[in-house]
Amino acid sequence: MSIFRSAVFTAAAAGLLAGILLAALQTFSTVPLILKAETFENAGGGHDHGAPAEAAAVDTTGPATAEHHSEEAWGPEDGFERFAYTTGANIISGFGFALLLVAASEFAGGIRNWRQGTVWGFAGFAVFTLAPGLGLPPELPAMPAADLFARQVWWIGTVAATAAGLALIAFRGTIPLSMLGVALIVLPHIIGAPQPESHESPVPADLHHQFVVAVTVTNLIFWVALGGVIGLVRQRFFGQQATLGASVA
After folding, report:
1. Residue 86 CA to chain centroid, in angstroms?
2. Whether the Cβ atoms of residue 144 and residue 199 lie closer than 8 Å to each other
3. HSE on the CB side for 174, CA within 13 Å?
4. Measuring CA to CA, which residue among 104, 109, 110 is closest to residue 233?
5. pLDDT of residue 65
6. Fewest C-beta atoms under 10 Å: which of 97, 155, 191, 206?
């Protein structure tokens, strides 16, 4: 059990640091854009996104989905309360993503240093942010969206296909399997992400563009930091223990 406990401790340390970093970045990048978009939502009545989502948390439907309010819905107050909830959500998400990254990398032999960690971080960014974001870009309040369940199904399928495709390309090395990996990465985008009936929105196009760029950049930094920290702290918790792959085998 010690090897699994080490994986949890490594993920907890990386998730804590990367989650706090992401919350700080969002305070000065995405949150002001969300607040600006909320003025358009309040003025125009907004659109029903299917369910509320925390805008400043790590993206799960595109790097971040915009927070949607209704008159009856509760939301954190602007300022410290919003920052505290955002930080908490980011730390929890960071721990979950770090655990996935640690598990995957250990089955592949383990992350030996921070440089390898940043490479794994880039891979996590490609799988969880870049690929699904191509079809489902981050949304601001007052923007229309397709059915929530359909978006979730497409997002999960895209993440799984991209992860499998990258694994085939990186770890198998043969031309046929690499071609299969490329096909898996491209397939979700050929199918296409669910789209709303209309793209009309009171939110200016340049504001949405700024938000997409801000979300993408902050999540890139988050993932690189997450992988780098895992590479730095892994040896402290794992020491000379075997990798998860060797343990299972």
Report:
1. 14
2. yes
3. 4
4. 110
5. 43
6. 206
Name every residue whose Cβ is closer than 8 Å to that of residue 213 and which is 6 or more positions away in sequence. Answer: none
Residue with token string 């495709």: 165
The token pair at 89 is: 């959500």
Residue 57 has pLDDT above 80, yes or no: no
Q: What is the pLDDT of residues 176-219, one digit of tens each?
A: 999 999 999 999 999 999 999 888 888 899 999 999 999 999 99
- 66 contacts 87 by C-beta, under 8 angstroms: no
DSSP letter at 29?
A: T
Q: What is the average per-residue pLDDT within 121-131?
A: 97
Length in residues, the chain: 249
Burial label for 26, CB within 10 Å (0-12, 13-18, 19+), is buried
Residue 17 structure tokens: 């640091």
> Considering the entire predicted model, what is its pTM?
0.82
> Which residue has 């794992």 as its token pair?
238
Cα diameter, the chain? 60
Residue type, 116: Q
